[in-house]
Amino acid sequence: MPSFAQVTSSLLVLALAAQASGRKIQEKGGLRLRNLAETDDEAAAEWTYRATGVVGEEPYGPDDWYLGYPDCAGTKQTPINIAADVMGTATMQEQAIAFFPSECNSTELVFKSDFAVWQVDFSGCTDAPYLQYQGETYNLLQFHIHSPSEHVLGGAEHAAEIHLVHLKQNTTDGLLVVGIMFEVSDYGQNVELEPMWNVMDLNQDIAEEQFMAAAYSLLPATPSFTTYSGSLTTPPCTEGVRWILMSEPNYMSTWQLDNYRRAVALHEGSKVSEVGATNRPIQELNGRDVLYVSP
Ligand SMILES: [Zn+2]
Protein backbone atom coordinates (compact mmCIF):
# COMPACT_ATOMS: atom_id res chain seq x y z
CA MET A 1 0.00 0.00 0.00
CA PRO A 2 1.28 3.46 -0.81
CA SER A 3 2.73 6.00 1.50
CA PHE A 4 1.42 9.53 1.37
CA ALA A 5 4.74 11.06 2.31
CA GLN A 6 6.00 13.98 0.21
CA VAL A 7 2.90 14.22 -1.93
CA THR A 8 1.74 17.76 -1.46
CA SER A 9 -1.21 17.59 -3.78
CA SER A 10 -2.75 14.65 -2.05
CA LEU A 11 -2.30 16.28 1.30
CA LEU A 12 -4.20 19.20 -0.11
CA VAL A 13 -7.00 16.98 -1.33
CA LEU A 14 -7.11 15.23 2.02
CA ALA A 15 -7.25 18.56 3.79
CA LEU A 16 -10.18 19.48 1.57
CA ALA A 17 -11.71 16.11 2.36
CA ALA A 18 -11.50 16.68 6.07
CA GLN A 19 -12.99 20.13 5.66
CA ALA A 20 -15.79 18.98 3.42
CA SER A 21 -16.98 15.88 5.15
CA GLY A 22 -16.18 16.62 8.76
CA ARG A 23 -14.55 13.21 8.91
CA LYS A 24 -11.15 12.17 9.92
CA ILE A 25 -9.36 10.91 6.85
CA GLN A 26 -7.40 7.72 7.06
CA GLU A 27 -5.01 6.63 4.38
CA LYS A 28 -4.28 2.94 4.01
CA GLY A 29 -0.53 3.52 4.15
CA GLY A 30 -0.86 4.55 7.76
CA LEU A 31 -0.51 8.33 7.63
CA ARG A 32 -3.49 10.01 9.23
CA LEU A 33 -4.67 13.56 8.88
CA ARG A 34 -7.06 14.65 11.57
CA ASN A 35 -9.76 17.21 11.20
CA LEU A 36 -9.04 19.30 14.28
CA ALA A 37 -12.71 19.60 15.09
CA GLU A 38 -13.17 15.88 15.01
CA THR A 39 -12.19 13.50 17.78
CA ASP A 40 -14.04 10.29 16.95
CA ASP A 41 -12.25 7.39 15.39
CA GLU A 42 -14.31 7.05 12.24
CA ALA A 43 -12.37 6.21 9.07
CA ALA A 44 -13.00 7.76 5.67
CA ALA A 45 -15.87 6.08 3.87
CA GLU A 46 -14.93 3.54 1.23
CA TRP A 47 -16.14 4.35 -2.28
CA THR A 48 -15.99 2.73 -5.67
CA TYR A 49 -16.84 3.33 -9.34
CA ARG A 50 -18.87 0.12 -9.24
CA ALA A 51 -22.59 0.68 -9.47
CA THR A 52 -23.74 -2.77 -8.47
CA GLY A 53 -22.85 -2.81 -4.78
CA VAL A 54 -25.39 -2.89 -1.98
CA VAL A 55 -27.28 0.42 -2.07
CA GLY A 56 -26.61 2.48 1.05
CA GLU A 57 -23.67 0.35 2.20
CA GLU A 58 -19.94 0.82 1.86
CA PRO A 59 -18.19 0.77 -0.46
CA TYR A 60 -20.51 3.41 -1.84
CA GLY A 61 -21.19 3.40 -5.59
CA PRO A 62 -21.23 6.74 -7.48
CA ASP A 63 -24.93 7.40 -6.74
CA ASP A 64 -24.26 6.88 -3.03
CA TRP A 65 -20.98 8.76 -2.64
CA TYR A 66 -22.88 11.54 -0.87
CA LEU A 67 -23.70 9.18 2.02
CA GLY A 68 -20.05 9.28 3.03
CA TYR A 69 -19.21 12.62 1.44
CA PRO A 70 -22.12 15.09 1.57
CA ASP A 71 -20.53 17.51 -0.93
CA CYS A 72 -21.02 14.91 -3.66
CA ALA A 73 -24.74 15.85 -3.60
CA GLY A 74 -23.92 19.52 -4.28
CA THR A 75 -25.34 21.53 -7.16
CA LYS A 76 -22.03 22.38 -8.84
CA GLN A 77 -20.55 18.96 -9.43
CA THR A 78 -18.14 17.61 -12.05
CA PRO A 79 -18.10 16.08 -14.67
CA ILE A 80 -20.77 17.49 -16.96
CA ASN A 81 -21.97 16.99 -20.49
CA ILE A 82 -20.87 19.90 -22.65
CA ALA A 83 -23.29 20.11 -25.53
CA ALA A 84 -21.98 20.62 -29.04
CA ASP A 85 -23.92 23.89 -29.37
CA VAL A 86 -21.98 25.44 -26.46
CA MET A 87 -18.76 24.90 -28.35
CA GLY A 88 -18.12 27.34 -31.13
CA THR A 89 -20.38 30.17 -29.99
CA ALA A 90 -18.10 32.80 -28.47
CA THR A 91 -14.75 34.47 -28.77
CA MET A 92 -13.54 35.96 -25.52
CA GLN A 93 -10.04 37.30 -25.77
CA GLU A 94 -10.00 38.45 -22.13
CA GLN A 95 -10.43 34.82 -21.00
CA ALA A 96 -7.27 33.67 -22.75
CA ILE A 97 -4.99 31.39 -20.79
CA ALA A 98 -1.18 31.49 -20.89
CA PHE A 99 0.92 28.40 -20.15
CA PHE A 100 4.51 28.67 -18.91
CA PRO A 101 6.31 25.34 -19.31
CA SER A 102 9.44 24.51 -17.39
CA GLU A 103 11.78 21.57 -17.46
CA CYS A 104 11.53 19.63 -14.26
CA ASN A 105 13.53 16.40 -14.18
CA SER A 106 12.45 15.37 -10.70
CA THR A 107 8.81 14.54 -11.24
CA GLU A 108 7.63 11.35 -9.60
CA LEU A 109 5.04 8.83 -10.65
CA VAL A 110 2.90 7.54 -7.80
CA PHE A 111 -0.20 5.40 -7.61
CA LYS A 112 -2.87 7.15 -5.52
CA SER A 113 -4.90 4.41 -3.96
CA ASP A 114 -7.53 6.81 -2.61
CA PHE A 115 -8.34 8.07 -6.08
CA ALA A 116 -7.47 5.04 -8.26
CA VAL A 117 -5.11 7.02 -10.48
CA TRP A 118 -1.48 7.06 -11.44
CA GLN A 119 -0.30 10.57 -10.74
CA VAL A 120 2.72 12.54 -11.88
CA ASP A 121 3.77 14.71 -8.97
CA PHE A 122 5.52 18.05 -9.50
CA SER A 123 6.01 18.96 -5.84
CA GLY A 124 9.73 18.16 -6.00
CA CYS A 125 10.36 20.68 -8.79
CA THR A 126 12.06 23.94 -8.00
CA ASP A 127 10.44 25.55 -11.04
CA ALA A 128 7.14 23.82 -11.67
CA PRO A 129 5.16 24.72 -14.77
CA TYR A 130 2.49 27.35 -14.19
CA LEU A 131 -0.31 29.14 -16.01
CA GLN A 132 -1.95 32.53 -15.86
CA TYR A 133 -5.71 32.97 -16.11
CA GLN A 134 -7.86 36.00 -15.30
CA GLY A 135 -4.89 37.84 -13.82
CA GLU A 136 -3.98 35.02 -11.42
CA THR A 137 -1.05 32.60 -11.37
CA TYR A 138 -1.68 28.88 -10.85
CA ASN A 139 1.14 26.41 -10.19
CA LEU A 140 0.97 22.84 -11.49
CA LEU A 141 0.81 20.32 -8.63
CA GLN A 142 0.21 17.05 -10.45
CA PHE A 143 -1.50 15.40 -13.37
CA HIS A 144 -3.37 12.10 -13.49
CA ILE A 145 -5.49 10.03 -15.84
CA HIS A 146 -9.08 8.78 -15.88
CA SER A 147 -10.36 6.28 -18.40
CA PRO A 148 -12.74 6.62 -20.14
CA SER A 149 -13.10 10.42 -20.10
CA GLU A 150 -15.15 11.98 -17.32
CA HIS A 151 -16.51 14.93 -19.31
CA VAL A 152 -18.64 14.30 -22.35
CA LEU A 153 -17.44 16.92 -24.79
CA GLY A 154 -19.57 17.71 -27.83
CA GLY A 155 -21.61 14.54 -27.31
CA ALA A 156 -18.59 12.19 -27.27
CA GLU A 157 -17.05 10.14 -24.50
CA HIS A 158 -13.31 9.84 -25.11
CA ALA A 159 -10.94 6.99 -24.27
CA ALA A 160 -9.22 8.93 -21.49
CA GLU A 161 -9.01 12.33 -19.83
CA ILE A 162 -5.92 13.82 -18.24
CA HIS A 163 -6.37 16.32 -15.40
CA LEU A 164 -3.62 18.87 -14.80
CA VAL A 165 -4.31 20.06 -11.26
CA HIS A 166 -3.17 23.60 -10.41
CA LEU A 167 -3.27 25.62 -7.21
CA LYS A 168 -3.63 29.39 -7.19
CA GLN A 169 -0.45 31.01 -5.93
CA ASN A 170 -0.50 31.89 -2.22
CA THR A 171 -3.73 30.00 -1.54
CA THR A 172 -4.52 26.56 -0.17
CA ASP A 173 -7.83 25.94 -1.89
CA GLY A 174 -7.87 27.84 -5.21
CA LEU A 175 -7.91 24.84 -7.53
CA LEU A 176 -7.94 25.03 -11.33
CA VAL A 177 -7.92 21.85 -13.39
CA VAL A 178 -7.07 21.71 -17.08
CA GLY A 179 -8.74 18.70 -18.73
CA ILE A 180 -7.40 17.17 -21.95
CA MET A 181 -9.34 14.48 -23.81
CA PHE A 182 -7.48 11.54 -25.33
CA GLU A 183 -8.54 9.34 -28.23
CA VAL A 184 -7.02 6.03 -29.18
CA SER A 185 -5.27 6.16 -32.50
CA ASP A 186 -3.06 4.01 -34.66
CA TYR A 187 -0.42 6.71 -35.09
CA GLY A 188 1.74 4.85 -32.58
CA GLN A 189 2.53 5.70 -28.99
CA ASN A 190 2.23 9.23 -27.70
CA VAL A 191 5.86 10.14 -27.06
CA GLU A 192 4.97 12.81 -24.49
CA LEU A 193 3.42 10.09 -22.32
CA GLU A 194 6.29 7.64 -22.75
CA PRO A 195 8.42 8.84 -19.80
CA MET A 196 5.50 8.05 -17.51
CA TRP A 197 4.77 4.66 -19.05
CA ASN A 198 8.47 3.78 -18.98
CA VAL A 199 8.63 3.99 -15.20
CA MET A 200 5.13 2.66 -14.40
CA ASP A 201 5.64 -0.42 -12.28
CA LEU A 202 2.85 -2.93 -12.02
CA ASN A 203 4.26 -4.24 -8.73
CA GLN A 204 4.89 -0.99 -6.91
CA ASP A 205 2.99 2.14 -6.03
CA ILE A 206 5.89 4.51 -6.52
CA ALA A 207 8.11 4.44 -9.59
CA GLU A 208 11.72 4.11 -8.57
CA GLU A 209 13.04 6.58 -11.07
CA GLN A 210 12.31 10.25 -11.20
CA PHE A 211 11.93 11.53 -14.71
CA MET A 212 11.25 14.50 -16.91
CA ALA A 213 7.57 15.09 -17.51
CA ALA A 214 6.72 17.89 -19.89
CA ALA A 215 3.13 18.37 -18.75
CA TYR A 216 2.20 21.22 -21.07
CA SER A 217 3.46 19.25 -24.08
CA LEU A 218 0.24 17.27 -23.66
CA LEU A 219 -1.79 20.36 -24.61
CA PRO A 220 -3.37 20.40 -28.06
CA ALA A 221 -2.19 22.84 -30.72
CA THR A 222 -5.53 24.67 -30.75
CA PRO A 223 -5.90 26.86 -27.64
CA SER A 224 -9.71 26.96 -27.52
CA PHE A 225 -11.42 25.61 -24.42
CA THR A 226 -14.64 25.48 -22.41
CA THR A 227 -14.73 26.71 -18.82
CA TYR A 228 -17.14 26.37 -15.90
CA SER A 229 -17.16 26.12 -12.10
CA GLY A 230 -17.34 22.58 -10.72
CA SER A 231 -15.86 20.16 -8.20
CA LEU A 232 -13.35 17.40 -7.59
CA THR A 233 -14.55 14.31 -9.49
CA THR A 234 -13.69 11.91 -6.65
CA PRO A 235 -14.86 12.05 -3.04
CA PRO A 236 -14.99 14.38 -1.18
CA CYS A 237 -16.32 16.15 -4.37
CA THR A 238 -15.34 19.56 -3.00
CA GLU A 239 -16.78 22.44 -5.08
CA GLY A 240 -15.16 25.73 -6.06
CA VAL A 241 -12.88 24.17 -8.70
CA ARG A 242 -12.35 26.13 -11.95
CA TRP A 243 -12.43 23.76 -14.93
CA ILE A 244 -10.70 24.46 -18.26
CA LEU A 245 -11.47 21.78 -20.86
CA MET A 246 -9.38 21.89 -23.99
CA SER A 247 -11.54 21.47 -27.10
CA GLU A 248 -9.14 19.53 -29.27
CA PRO A 249 -8.32 15.97 -28.17
CA ASN A 250 -4.85 14.44 -28.01
CA TYR A 251 -4.19 10.75 -28.65
CA MET A 252 -2.55 7.68 -27.17
CA SER A 253 -1.99 4.20 -28.55
CA THR A 254 -4.17 1.20 -27.77
CA TRP A 255 -1.18 -0.30 -25.94
CA GLN A 256 -0.80 2.80 -23.77
CA LEU A 257 -4.48 2.88 -22.90
CA ASP A 258 -4.68 -0.84 -22.13
CA ASN A 259 -1.53 -0.77 -20.07
CA TYR A 260 -2.75 2.17 -18.02
CA ARG A 261 -6.08 0.55 -17.28
CA ARG A 262 -4.39 -2.72 -16.36
CA ALA A 263 -1.98 -0.92 -14.04
CA VAL A 264 -4.87 0.79 -12.23
CA ALA A 265 -6.93 -2.39 -11.92
CA LEU A 266 -3.95 -4.34 -10.55
CA HIS A 267 -3.46 -1.78 -7.82
CA GLU A 268 -7.04 -0.88 -6.94
CA GLY A 269 -9.32 -3.49 -8.45
CA SER A 270 -12.07 -2.88 -5.92
CA LYS A 271 -12.44 0.76 -6.96
CA VAL A 272 -12.56 0.40 -10.73
CA SER A 273 -15.93 -0.35 -12.29
CA GLU A 274 -17.08 -3.72 -13.58
CA VAL A 275 -15.64 -2.80 -16.99
CA GLY A 276 -12.41 -1.37 -15.62
CA ALA A 277 -13.50 2.28 -15.77
CA THR A 278 -12.41 5.12 -13.51
CA ASN A 279 -14.78 7.91 -14.51
CA ARG A 280 -17.57 9.47 -12.48
CA PRO A 281 -21.00 9.61 -14.18
CA ILE A 282 -22.20 12.93 -15.66
CA GLN A 283 -23.66 15.40 -13.14
CA GLU A 284 -26.49 17.93 -13.50
CA LEU A 285 -25.51 21.35 -14.87
CA ASN A 286 -28.07 23.13 -12.64
CA GLY A 287 -28.01 26.35 -14.63
CA ARG A 288 -24.27 26.97 -14.41
CA ASP A 289 -22.57 29.17 -16.99
CA VAL A 290 -20.46 27.25 -19.48
CA LEU A 291 -18.24 29.54 -21.55
CA TYR A 292 -16.58 28.63 -24.79
CA VAL A 293 -13.32 30.51 -25.29
CA SER A 294 -11.54 30.70 -28.62
CA PRO A 295 -8.64 33.13 -28.26
ZN1 LIG B 1 -9.17 13.79 -12.04
Automatic annotation (TrEMBL):
<dbReference type="InterPro" id="IPR036398">
    <property type="entry name" value="CA_dom_sf"/>
</dbReference>
<dbReference type="InterPro" id="IPR001148">
    <property type="entry name" value="CA_dom"/>
</dbReference>
<dbReference type="InterPro" id="IPR023561">
    <property type="entry name" value="Carbonic_anhydrase_a-class"/>
</dbReference>
<dbReference type="Pfam" id="PF00194">
    <property type="entry name" value="Carb_anhydrase"/>
</dbReference>
<comment type="similarity">
    <text>Belongs to the alpha-carbonic anhydrase family.</text>
</comment>
<feature type="signal peptide">
    <location>
        <begin position="1"/>
        <end position="22"/>
    </location>
</feature>
<keyword id="KW-0732">Signal</keyword>
<comment type="function">
    <text>Reversible hydration of carbon dioxide.</text>
</comment>
<keyword id="KW-0456">Lyase</keyword>
<keyword id="KW-0862">Zinc</keyword>
<dbReference type="InterPro" id="IPR041891">
    <property type="entry name" value="Alpha_CA_prokaryot-like"/>
</dbReference>
<keyword id="KW-0479">Metal-binding</keyword>
<feature type="domain" description="Alpha-carbonic anhydrase">
    <location>
        <begin position="45"/>
        <end position="294"/>
    </location>
</feature>
<dbReference type="InterPro" id="IPR018338">
    <property type="entry name" value="Carbonic_anhydrase_a-class_CS"/>
</dbReference>
<dbReference type="GO" id="GO:0008270">
    <property type="term" value="F:zinc ion binding"/>
</dbReference>
<dbReference type="GO" id="GO:0004089">
    <property type="term" value="F:carbonate dehydratase activity"/>
</dbReference>
<protein>
    <recommendedName>
        <fullName>Carbonic anhydrase</fullName>
        <ecNumber>4.2.1.1</ecNumber>
    </recommendedName>
</protein>
